[in-house]
Write a structure and sequence with these properties.
This protein is of the alpha+beta class. The protein contains 15 helices and seven strands.
Length: 369
Amino acid sequence: MNEQIQPFIEGFAVQLFQRDLIDWFEREQRDLPWRKDKDPYKIWVSEIMLQQTRVDTVIPYFHQFIKQFPTLESLADADEEKVLKAWEGLGYYSRIRNLHAAVKEVKERYGGKVPDRAEEFSKLKGVGPYTTGAVLSIAYGIPEPAVDGNVMRVLSRIFLIREDIAKTKTRKIFEEIVRAIISHDNPSYFNQALMELGALICVPGKPACLLCPVQEHCRAFQEGVQEELPVKTKKTKMKEVAISAAVVVDSQGRILIHKRDREGLLANLWEFPNCEISSKHPKEQLEAFLKEAYGVHVELEHAFAALEHEFSHLVWNIVVYRGMIKSNVAETERLKLVSEEEIHEYAFPVSHQRIWNEYKQSADSFRPV
């Protein structure tokens, strides 16, 4: 046993804990679509979707995605534009780009079979320790730890661990603890039960301790300090960026859209023309940007929306204008004029979906009844 975790594990009733936890999960587990079978591809997709996203949000996306890409091969062979469109609205688009690249590698290197060895699966693009443990334990019954924020919260309370869970070294402690206490008879249910416990009972703030199936094993509950755990350092203040954006149309009513760069934030997604604002005249700066960047002369009217959109590390404060295109547009693969019907074929980030919805609502309000 790892000496670092020995003080936490010493005297802990591992087998009783496993029994109480798994029995509860067998009774109370939620009916989720990725639990219908043990297809490693579907489990992998669900775990990538569930990163940074709530279960209720993921369920309809999962159904739609699997309907469109029912097998690993179908996703591997799919055009990136279609894959991004299927992911549209889930955000954190690097997740789907990495998954798309990884399933291509699985098809080419492993004949389409998701690897069942941690040393192989963990080397795929976008696959970290948590995804490795979740997929291998749930799909293949391999006793690998799957430690995410929910699991760290649960274990910090059960073992009374006051280490900062925001630090990488603390995650390593929890991974070693799970290796020591995981059920080798049923690692799938063990890992899922820890996740489920964190989602339903051992929640942030005020856990529902009276409903907890492993309450008698919980050292934090015994000492009455469960609400003090886990310890987590606060995030630094997010950077705020002022942006002007515009929905501009030509004389035929076609809308100008642009595809973002191939690398970086929201790579390869479509957007309405926009730029960061560094002056007190945002409308004029955006008009100048459109002329310089795309060779397009536009006249912008009033602003019709002001939106705030948060990422994990920054906030966009977006002011949105409507306008008319007053020159020819030299269309390219990354700059297009599209009709209102065609615009739905392109994948936009959530912030620009919101821009479009605001535009449609404001346009409707100006139409005569």
